[in-house]
Amino acid sequence: MKEVYVLATEQSVPPSLDALRAAFATDEVEFVPHEGDWGFTVRADGSEVKVVLKPLSDGRPRVPQELFSGSPEAFARVEKSQACYAFLLEPGGAQPTLPVFEALWTVRTLMEQAPGVLVDLTAFKLHEPEDVVEITELDFDIRDHVHLHAIELAEGDTPLWVHSHGMEKFGARDVEIFHLGEGDLLAAESFLHELCTDLAFAQGPALRSEVATSEGQSFTLVPSEEARANLLGVPLDAFEGHEGLFLTVVSPLGRHNTAELLATYRERFAKEPAEQTQAMHEEAQALLPAFLARFQRKGLMEPLTFLVRAPFETHPEGEVVVENLWLEAVTRDEGSVVGRLVDGAVHTTEWRKGAHVEVEEKQINALAIAREGRALNESELRALLNAERPM
């Protein structure tokens, strides 16, 4: 079994195993206390999570801020911790995400008895209790489980090596891509997150085979011990501290030139012209009364999904960035729409996919309706909404 998480808590005395047994008392979970030392094992859905109290001689987990991501408060809480609990699991299997989520549910239950900060040892991340709650309740977001690291390896316009940390917990190798420039970073992040998600669900591409991305571009995945042999101008000590085995993204011909691969991903980050956003906002506001009227009289069995778009603030690296996000309308509440985010924020996990949010109607800047999963085109949308207008 592999030690994947550590819970650092300021509570020096461990909770009673009887209290934990009651907390885990469900038909789906088997709670097994360890004999001798404090600790227990949780078995559920064919997976097993082992929890042990780490000896005081091991000290607090080392979480250097240059490597780990987390809030200042989380770093401070780790430094003040008085006890640490290790969570061990067997990575991989037919459903690699299953043991990870069983471990996180176990963490969440223990956190209710011993509040603290969760340290992801594989991804170099710190999670506070509210983070763990969101991760376990909302849609899967690979950014909660991996950390992307960019290192400058050489001189020139494309010196960057971008690689992941955290895929070990899913029983997979981390991934890497070379020869990137600063302007490639957001596109590379989007592509690598997509690739890591597939690997986490055991749906990754076969090695050394040409495969296509969701955007239609082709690439090949090669073990790093093979792919790095073709790297030119990279010093031998460049990979110090990263001696583990990776999967390397290369072109179908085995080259480290990925400009064409990332081209379509760059389009996701092209800024929408302000004039276009304003025009869309005006059009959406004009159609909104009919849109909401139709939404409110939607039948329970009617295969229609009502979507609205609105601006949300995110704060990557302390900066304020406004992203337009789509949400599926769930209900209406006095001048606002409450819904579920269809996609998470691109730059951070402040707004996670699946989260329930509320937006003011006056902020809505785009509308869409889907029938049985297919988005209605503009003429179909207008025809549907015109039926709501008074004669």
From TrEMBL:
<dbReference type="InterPro" id="IPR018756">
    <property type="entry name" value="DUF2314"/>
</dbReference>
<dbReference type="Pfam" id="PF10077">
    <property type="entry name" value="DUF2314"/>
</dbReference>
<protein>
    <recommendedName>
        <fullName>DUF2314 domain-containing protein</fullName>
    </recommendedName>
</protein>
<feature type="domain" description="DUF2314">
    <location>
        <begin position="280"/>
        <end position="369"/>
    </location>
</feature>
